[in-house]
Amino acid sequence: MFEQYKLPFASDALEPVIDKTTVETHHGKHHATYTATFNKLVSDAGLEGKSVEEILGGLDAVSDEALRKGLRNNGGGYYNHNLYFMTLSPDGGGQPRGKLLDKIVATFGSFDNMKQKLSDLALTQFGSGWSFLSADKNGELYASQSPNQDNPISEGTGRTPILAIDVWEHAYYLGYKNLRADYVKAIWDKIDWNKVEELYENTIG
Ligand code: MN3
């Protein structure tokens, strides 16, 4: 049974960057539904006991097309939202330190360049989707965008996402209406770089 990530802060704690109603709807409805649907499909497919990474990375083994598509969308929705919410914090902002910061500078030129790159990918994602910062086992970093609830795991890259920006309209429309760029600009103030660093360290083992 996959458990939805529980928010360690109140639903209004990310204001004014993300309003209370958006957090309640996004976490309490959208994310909860992805989780419940994913659990049902995992059971239908007989995949209990596998990790979400194993399921998303092994979708080709699911022969039933509807089931495969459902697992991709709802397993991705479950995984992506766990990552999204666990890397947000009322005390977020600033920048990472140590190994992650060094690698960001080596890969993108500077911390600000990385933010710009990830923001550009978030803004140019046509329709619903995500931008991701991911790492491989050697510690290399990658910026990418994905449609729908896809991610670098379900896309078969072998990379692990360590930061995710949700640009589905449900993530920002109540607070920002059509102004996706304002939401993407503001969200950096709530990114928990301690958590992103932890995820990076876990990825490179
Ligand atoms: Mn979402």
Can you walk through the features of this model?
With 205 residues, the protein is mainly α. The protein has two domains: 67 residues, Fe,Mn superoxide dismutase (SOD) domain (Helix Hairpins), CATH 1.10.287.990; 107 residues, Iron/manganese superoxide dismutase, C-terminal domain (minor pseudopilin epsh fold, 3-Layer(bab) Sandwich). It contains eight helices and three strands. A three-stranded antiparallel beta sheet has the order 2-1-3. The site of manganese (III) ion has 7 residues, from helix 1. Manganese (III) ion (MN3) binds next to helix 1.
Keywords, separated by commas or semicolons:
205 residues; mainly alpha; Helix Hairpins; minor pseudopilin epsh fold; 3-stranded antiparallel sheet; 8 helices; 3 strands; 50% helix; binds manganese (III) ion
Unreliable stretches (pLDDT < 50, length at least 5) are: none
* Residue fraction in strands: 5-15%
Shape: globular
The strands making up the biggest β-sheet line up spatially as 2-1-3
Which sheet architecture does the biggest sheet show? Answer: 3 strands, antiparallel
Provide the CATH top-level class of the largest domain.
Alpha Beta
* Class per helix and strand makeup: mainly alpha
Quickly count the helices.
Answer: 8
C-alpha Rg, in Å?
Answer: 16 Å
